[in-house]
Design brief:
- This protein has two domains: 2-73 and 102-180 and 272-349, FAD/NAD(P)-binding domain, CATH 3.50.50.60; 184-271 and 356-389, D-Amino Acid Oxidase, subunit A, domain 2 (D-Amino Acid Oxidase, Chain A, domain 2).
- Helix content is 37%, strand content 30%.
- The protein is built from 13 helices and 21 strands.
- The strands form four sheets. It has an eight-stranded mixed sheet with strand order 7-6-15-16-17-14-18-21. Strands 9-3-2-13-20-19 form a six-stranded mixed sheet, covered by helices on one side. The chain has a four-stranded mixed sheet with strand order 1-12-11-10, with no helix packed on it.
- A hairpin with a 7-residue loop joins strand 10 and strand 11 (141-146).
- Helix 1 (16-27) runs parallel beside helix 9, helix 9 runs antiparallel to helix 11 (331-353) and helix 12 packs across helix 13.
- The longest helix has 23 residues, at 331-353.
- The protein is globular and about 60 Å long.
- It starts with a strand and ends with a helix.
- Bound molecules: arabino-flavin-adenine dinucleotide and P-hydroxybenzoic acid.
- Arabino-flavin-adenine dinucleotide (FAS) binds next to helix 1, strand 10 and helix 9.
């Protein structure tokens, strides 16, 4: 049996990109369906980003989904970069009048699902065999299966919000798609622990043993990461091994006060930089991880998905409200201009803070000089702050 329906926008992927776009479209009366491969609970079980740029907070406000974010989000006006026992305090607001907000992607996604359910908009879960057809014609459509039922969804536009491993990007002909990729020889082993954060700001630590990050989700919930070889697996790391590695990598002041506890989540994220050009093909528009990936060192993955959503939502709004499709035609060019600047910053932060297996003594000296220059130079600190809090849309 095949059910057939028509919507204005078919959104592939029920992660933050797809849900935020769907909610914004709802605010202007544009009918969108969301097709998600997994279940809501599975999507919410992923522990990912933790730092929101002001641009994403503003989008959540426009979507009417920022109430809990404002109640529970933690405003941060700076961060710490450390190497050995040396600490570089980077006060954002000294250089750029924008803070960041610490609020987990899991909670942001939960807020968006709750809002979507409240609107009564359709979300299909457990979808399989998603195919996109006639995307260069005036009447594209999506077919998929969900819970034993085959669906055909006719639409005006398709938003590919299905992440790095999704199907949308593959519908841009390989001969017309250029992919840029750099895979890093390490990953991030992350844990969540019901312990008080070691510091009231994030600490990005470079050490002889490798990178570490001290982050948080609240006053009693901490998020920590240590760099591990790309070949390592979670079961090689019991909690004691993790805490010992973290202690060795952060300044003694924090190692001495670190409160440890059992991990309630533990996972390894691979690190890569990736960009697909173009980010659109006919009536298909890619958003977020479907189009680009950054190493999480600059806290830019989720935030660059947000800037894509900003550009695509504004373009769709101009199309539907003003019958003007110029911004839609320019979406890929507009989005990629910001994406590449974010890729640069994320690669720079990753190169600054990690130990690379093939690093020579010269490479280490250069990395040390980069850190010393950052410690001594206000313009270098301003550049980091401007990029970290979020480049303008
Ligand atoms: P997502 O991948 O979040 O969502 C895509 C959705 O599409 C998923 O729910 C998926 O199930 C669904 N999907 C896939 N294929 C489909 C199909 N064929 N049909 C239907 N649905 C399909 N960013 C940071 O800033 N900081 C971090 O610490 C950080 N950690 C990360 C750790 C990991 C393991 C990963 C993978 C990413 C991490 N990121 C981090 C980046 C992450 O936050 C992304 O930038 C963010 O999830 C992007 O959101 P989406 O574009 O919605 O993609
Ligand atoms: C997190 O809290 O998960 C987090 C924060 C900053 C990053 C990456 C991850 O750069």
């Amino acid at each position: 049996m095949t059910t057939q329906r028509r919507v204005q926008v078919a959104i592939i992927g029920g992660g933050p990109s797809g849900l935020l776009l769907g909610q914004l479209l709802h605010t202007i009366g544009v009918d969108a369906i969301v097709l998600e491969r997994k279940t809501r609970d599975y999507v919410l079980s992923r522990i990912r980003a933790g730092v929101l740029e002001q641009g994403l907070v503003t989008l959540m406000e426009e979507a009417g989904t920022a109430d809990r974010l404002h109640r529970e989000g933690i405003t941060h006006d700076g961060t710490v970069i450390s190497y050995g026992n040396t600490q570089i305090a980077i006060p954002f607001t000294k250089h750029v009048a924008k803070p960041v907000t610490v609020y987990g992607q899991t909670e942001l996604t939960r807020d968006l699902y709750d809002a979507r359910e409240h609107t009564g908009a359709t979300t299909l879960f457990n979808v399989t065999n998603v195919t996109l057809s006639d995307i260069t014609d005036d009447s594209p459509y999506v077919e998929c299966e969900a819970n034993g039922v085959r669906h055909r969804i006719d639409c005006d536009f398709i938003a590919g919000c299905d992440g790095f491993h999704g199907v949308s990007r593959q519908h841009i002909p390989a001969a017309c798609r250029q992919e840029f990729e750099k895979v890093y020889p390490f990953g991030w082993l992350g844990i969540l622990s019901e312990t008080p954060p070691v510091h009231d700001e994030l600490i990005y630590a470079n050490s002889d043993d490798g990178f570490a990050l001290c982050s948080m989700r609240g006053a009693h919930l901490s998020r920590y990461y240590v760099q591990v070889a790309a070949t390592e697996s979670v079961d090689q790391w019991d909690d004691n091994a993790f805490w010992s590695a973290l202690r060795r990598r952060i300044p003694e002041q924090f190692a001495d006060t670190l409160v440890t506890g059992p991990s309630i989540e533990k996972s390894i994220a691979p690190l890569r930089s990736f960009v697909c050009e173009p980010m659109q093909w006919g009536k298909l528009f890619l958003c977020g991880d479907a189009a680009h990936i950054v190493p999480p060192t600059g806290a830019k993955g989720l935030n660059t998905a947000a800037s894509d959503v900003r550009y695509l939502f504004d373009a769709l709004k101009t199309h539907y409200v003003n019958r003007d499709s110029e911004a839609l035609r320019n979406y890929s060019q507009t989005a990629l201009a910001r994406v590449w600047k974010v890729e640069r910053f994320s690669h720079w932060m990753t190169s600054l803070l990690h130990r690379f297996p093939e690093q020579t003594d010269f490479d280490l000296k250069i990395q040390q000089a980069e850190l010393s220059f950052l410690a001594e130079n206000q313009s270098a600190q301003a550049s980091l702050a401007i990029n970290y809090v979020g480049l303008p849309y």
